[in-house]
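Protein 1 of 2
SEQ + STRUCT:
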Amino acid sequence: RLPAAPPVAVTEGADTLCPAGLPALADSDPVGTLGAEQIVSSLGPLRRGVEACAGATEGPGAAGGRVSMALRIGGDGLVASACIVRDETGDPALRACLVRATRSIAFPAPAPPGFVDVQLPFALSPLASQRQRPLCE
């Protein structure tokens, strides 16, 4: 027997879907700039978080699928908001976990200081150790 997977909590009332993307910035909100290399170099913790979320889910997301995440980086480099733009998994617990994982990462502060919007695609697949194999072949 394998140990039970850790529970994936869903925050009640959390709206993690935003098919139209993030809301527009106000005219008074500053727009910053981050280079692609700065963004990519900061994604290590998010990759680990996404793997943990995908490995812990027991819902429909356990089969994998494509998910696109929209996030807004604030002037301090922290994620100001995040949501799921596209979700092929249909798993609310997985979406909530992915949004939590995204909100916990930090990027370099944009220069000039301001908000930076990013969209990240993920191709989730179950780990080979999690895939069931037939008992009889």
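Protein 2 of 2
SEQ + STRUCT:
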Amino acid sequence: MNDICVRWQCTGVKGQREIWEREYASPDPLWRGPAPNTVPGEGRVLELGCGNGKTLSSLVRHSGEVIGLDHSINALHQCPPGPSLVRGDVLRLPFQDERFDTVLLHHVLQHLYADERELVIGEVRRVLRPGGILSIRTFSVRDMRFGKGEEVERNTFRRGNGLIYHYFEADELRALLSPLVEMELRESVVETRFAKGSVRAELVGTFRR
């Protein structure tokens, strides 16, 4: 079992924590599929919302320090050995200013409300060193799951399991991330095999502080 450092201050995330713990305790998890082939990262790397470590598994050969943070203890217990693991809150990161060269924010913002998304980006800017890199992935409004569930904010839907999903437009994401400097932002669209014409769509970007 991994050693997990607990730096815990409960400030959110609006009724979602218990649901995530239940999902990660399930023997049939929602999040499957292979780890990414390549993950941006140099120097001291922090992955926020690392979950059960699918992306962390692509960083285990990284020569620098790698830290994964998540609020779910059940998720962290499933992470691969190697990276340092921290149970903490993305809304109030337990790290000093300008500590990291790279921050990964993959499929985290989509599970937050608008005010929480702003708090997270403020924390990312705080912990990134000048010139540091933010790698981001999040659902696009073109994704086939857009509109499923109860709309609780603009383009934000609560599904039957209680989790929320926000779907971004590119300009909305750019505005949220300013004044970080955009290096790349593209939409990745993949047609599904089980429903003709249906696509999985996400925005993939790299921004510099």
